[in-house]
Design a protein that fits this description.
Structural class: mainly alpha
Strand content: under 5%
CATH architecture: Orthogonal Bundle
Radius of gyration: 19 Å
Helix content: over 70%
Strand order of the largest sheet: 1-2
Oligomer: single chain
Shape: globular
Amino acid sequence: MLGWFDENLVSILNGFAIGALLFVLAVGLSIVFGMMDVLNLAHGAFFLVGSYLAVNFVAGDSWGGFLAALGVAALVGLLAGGALSGMTEPLARRPVLDQALLTLGISLVVAEVLSIVYGNDVRSVSPPPGLDTSVDVAGSAYPAYRLMLIGVGLVLALAVWLVVERTSVGALVRASVADREMVSAMGIDNRKVKVAVLGIGSMLATVAGVLAAPVYGARPGLDETILLLALVVVVIGGLGSIRGALIGALVIGQVESLGRALLPDVASFILFGTLALVLIVRPRGLFAGKVAHS
């Protein structure tokens, strides 16, 4: 067993790094859908916007460019979330499928615009200075940047959990989910809460795109691949659950990494087989939170 672990250490670490990225992306999707009842299929397109922002700002090895990309991506994500809230508001009382079709259309438009502007070639992004090297981990060389991603994912998981579960802002969001009418009766505008949650969720998507750029680069079609993985994470973890998003992301990260390393021909079957198994045992996901109802 120990020998197998040593042989596959790099793949296991890759699984944690992929899981960290998927968590940053999926936690926003999970909160927006699970708490605000908005199925945002443009989430992957927002991720791709972040990746191309990294292409624009990170010229060579530069911390300044990388941090600028993160800042601009955060702002773009907040604005995109606000705009998305306004577009989905007229559909609030209609079936979720209507919102899904709207956000899918937005996703297709954004992806096409990015393809026109940047072309169809894969654009690579260099990690910041100091993180563009490899470090020794139990005798194996491993990229320092991917280790940083694992740390960022864990820190962000703790930060999001603290905000949602231990602050007045989080209490307001949970109250809006549990009883929107009562929150409105207290003089709080539920629409503002929805705008804030959608903004933060979209911001997490664009920031995840920047963080992922040194690993995946930026290319057409990446938005669809990453959205599919994020949806699998959300379904496995359970809607509206931060803990579920983290556990689901780590599970899918390992399935994706080890599956492609050990059984590349059936990796996709293993991925969706894991999803099917979880749905059979726990139809609402491993840690389903409270879901909003219109």
